[in-house]
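Issue 218. Parser rejects a valid record. Input:
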Amino acid sequence: MSRTDSLGSAAASKPLRLSVSALIEDDAGRYLLLKRAASSAHFAGEWEPPGGKIDPHEPFDAALRREVKEETGLDVVLLGAAGVTEFEIERLRIIQLHIVAQASSTHVRISKEHTEYAWVHPGDFDRVDLCPKLRNWRELVCTVKEDPPT
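Output the parser choked on:
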């Protein structure tokens, strides 16, 4: 089966957009998640890691540092790739790069895009209403824990 067949012709005809997210772990082995505001156009009320779409001509690493700073107030150092997910919204297919990041602190200041934040242990991901786009996020985190970027 070709990639187009597995996506379906409607999905394959949608324009692609690249986005990024940060897997930020604290000293207790928990990961930072943000709850999207009820007013969000997509995935309202669901939890996600910090990140977002990349602006045209913006390097992905600069985009991720910008998004994390805007959404959390944190400065991060990017350590390496964790994986990729792909999902659809009405008019777009999104390919999301997940990057392991280290934060300068755990003092989070959320933006208006989100209503809450939480540091969540991987064993508790099932108790959080994660965005459907993150269906394999637990596997990404477990893979990073087994083989961290150097």
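Fixed in the parser; the record now loads. The first strand starts at residue 16 and ends at 24.
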